[in-house]
């Protein structure tokens, strides 16, 4: 992780995700089941795995760290935009474009 004012918060978030993942029992790891309701054609699904929420949290955190790295790295503004576009992280692309327009002024 880069040296950044948010680094302690990021590290706490990683630790929290790690602890929460370790606390999920093995039988609770897999996504919920789906079955037909008795006497009906309707599909009933069980509760989704808590891992899915942790994956979403980890993805959000990794995107925050990526954006911070992208803002801090010493590369050309155009390279920054290209990297941001390739990443698929919307906030990174917005940041890169705003930095590009600031330099163009």
In short:
With 105 residues, the chain is mainly α. The chain is built from four helices and two strands; from the N terminus they run αββααα.
Distance from first to last alpha carbon: 31 Å
Task: Note the beta-strand portion.
Answer: 5-15%
Q: Helical residue percent? A: 55-70%
Structural class: mainly alpha
What is the number of strand segments? 2
In DSSP terms, counting alpha (H) and pi (I) runs of 4 or more, how many helices? 4
**Molecular shape:** elongated
Weakly predicted, low-confidence segments: none
Average pLDDT metric: 85
Rounded to an integer in angstroms, the radius of gyration calculated over CA atoms is 20 Å
- Strand order, main sheet: write it out: 1-2
Question: What does the main sheet amount to?
Answer: 2 strands, antiparallel
Helices and strands, in N-to-C order? HEEHHH
What do you see in this structure?
The structure is a single chain. The chain is mostly helical and 105 residues long. The protein has 4 helices and 2 strands. It is 62% helix and 6% strand. The protein has a two-stranded antiparallel sheet with strand order 1-2. A hairpin with a 6-residue loop joins β1 and β2 (43-45).
């Amino acid at each position: 992780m880069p040296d950044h004012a948010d680094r302690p918060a990021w590290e706490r978030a990683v630790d929290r995700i790690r602890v929460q993942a370790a606390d999920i029992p093995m039988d609770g790891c897999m996504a919920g089941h789906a079955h037909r309701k008795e006497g009906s054609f309707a599909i009933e699904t069980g509760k989704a795995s808590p891992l899915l929420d942790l994956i979403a949290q980890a993805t959000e955190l990794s995107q925050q760290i990526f954006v911070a790295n992208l803002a801090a790295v010493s590369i050309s503004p155009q390279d920054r935009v290209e990297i941001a576009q390739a990443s698929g992280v919307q906030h990174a692309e917005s940041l890169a474009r705003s930095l590009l327009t600031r330099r163009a002024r």
